[in-house]
Design goal:
Rossmann fold; 7-stranded mixed beta sheet; 7 strands; globular; disordered C terminus
């Protein structure tokens, strides 16, 4: 394809969720609301907290992610899907908003300004990831899907968005929407997402674990450090998040035009 044709192809920025956009595991973040809603016991909350501690300190390798997958599927077997969605909707802003990295939010705005689609790609369940994506103004979401029968989770996983599967899902989405992957960006903290990062032309390691830091250093990928979770507060409702991002973007453009005008008027 010619250079002008490539330049007109749409592009996207693919973001991992846990420890990349938000400062902890999204599944763990909802463990206490799920306990309050009668879905899990206090013992399971404590077990989840211990697993989350290991995840935050040491990252997640393939064995840990497999254990997490088994734990997640066993834990949710028999849950009512409607109840889960109601709990997530009622607690989303209080639970998630204080965990969003300011640096990640700035990147999302920058990609929106550049005309890129924003896609969240997460091994967490779609029931959690999709509302978070709406809150942040994401255009699409790739997430794990649990098997459902008669309105309840069976305990089986229908689709697991993890490791090489993330890369395959990104390539399928590029085929569907016409993304030029060589011009796309991807962001993740975990070595398990190396296939996803290698699927695009502009990979970035965010708060990387030891193995991802090694690979990023060897391959010359930018290494970003996100340290400032920001409380978004109640300034915007979930449905208004895309509009909020548009307002921020508009403000940045207006500021740039104003600075340019004053520069031009100087003697």
């Amino acid at each position: 394809m010619s250079a002008p044709m490539l330049a007109t192809m749409p592009t996207a920025a693919f973001f991992d969720l846990d420890k990349t956009i938000i400062a902890k595991s999204s599944t763990f973040a909802f463990s206490r609301p799920f306990q309050a809603g009668g879905l899990i016991s206090r013992g399971l909350v404590l077990r989840s907290a211990y697993s989350h501690f290991l995840y935050m300190v040491g990252g997640a390798d393939h064995d840990q992610m497999e254990k997490m997958r088994q734990f997640m599927s066993q834990m949710c077997a028999g849950w009512d899907v409607a109840v889960v969605k109601e709990i997530v909707a009622d607690t989303l802003h209080n639970i998630v908003e204080p965990l969003v990295y300011a640096e990640a939010l700035n990147l999302i705005v920058q990609h929106k300004l550049a005309g890129n689609d924003v896609v969240i790609v997460s091994a967490s369940g779609a029931e959690l990831v999709e509302p978070i994506g709406t809150m942040l103004g994401a255009d699409h979401v790739i997430a794990t899907r649990m098997e459902v029968s008669d309105g309840k989770y069976t305990g089986e996983i229908e689709y697991y968005a993890y490791a090489e599967e993330k890369a395959r899902a990104i390539e399928a989405m590029a085929e569907e929407f016409g993304y030029d992957l060589d011009r796309c960006h991807a962001y993740s903290d975990s070595a398990t997402d190396i296939p996803m990062l290698r699927a695009v032309g502009h990979p970035h390691a965010v708060n990387p674990d030891r193995e991802l830091r090694r690979v990023a250093t060897e391959e010359g990928w930018p290494i970003l450090v996100f340290v400032r979770p920001v409380a978004l507060g109640n300034r915007f409702g979930a449905a208004a998040k895309p509009a909020a991002l548009a307002l921020v973007a508009g403000g940045v453009v207006a500021l740039g035009v104003t600075l340019w005008w004053h520069t031009r008027r100087r003697p």
